Amino acid sequence: MIRHVVHFTWSDAADEDRRAQTVAALRRLPEQVPGSLAFTVAPDAGLVEGNAHTVLVADFPDAGTFRAYAADPVHLAVIAEHVRPYLAARSAVQYEL
């Protein structure tokens, strides 16, 4: 199994409403793009200064399924419309469970 973890830090252009819209768009991905076994998107709890603003954690049965998700046109459209225009920083990791 592959776990995909992404940390998003939003730019100043991403006000609270925009962040909520982006989180909602990311949360719809499992309904629109097949393959994930578990999928969570959540804002940071605000317990430590300097954390990223939002996290996405998704589990896939194998690397091929993750790659198909990553290349899916719906996924890419969500990234292009809801993420990239408001992104200050992003980091990601995929690892085997």
Features:
globular, 4 strands, single chain, 97 residues, 4 helices, 37% helix, alpha+beta, Alpha-Beta Plaits, four-stranded antiparallel β-sheet
Explain this structure to me?
By secondary structure, the chain is α+β, with helices and mostly antiparallel strands. The protein has a single domain, classed as Alpha-Beta Plaits, CATH 3.30.70.100. Helices cover 37% and strands 33% of the residues. The protein has a four-stranded antiparallel sheet. It starts with a strand and ends with a strand. The mean pLDDT is 97.
In short:
The protein is α+β, with helices and mostly antiparallel strands. 37% of the residues lie in helices and 33% in strands. It has helices spanning 16-27, 29-32, 63-71, 73-83; strands at residues 2-10, 38-43, 54-60, 87-96.
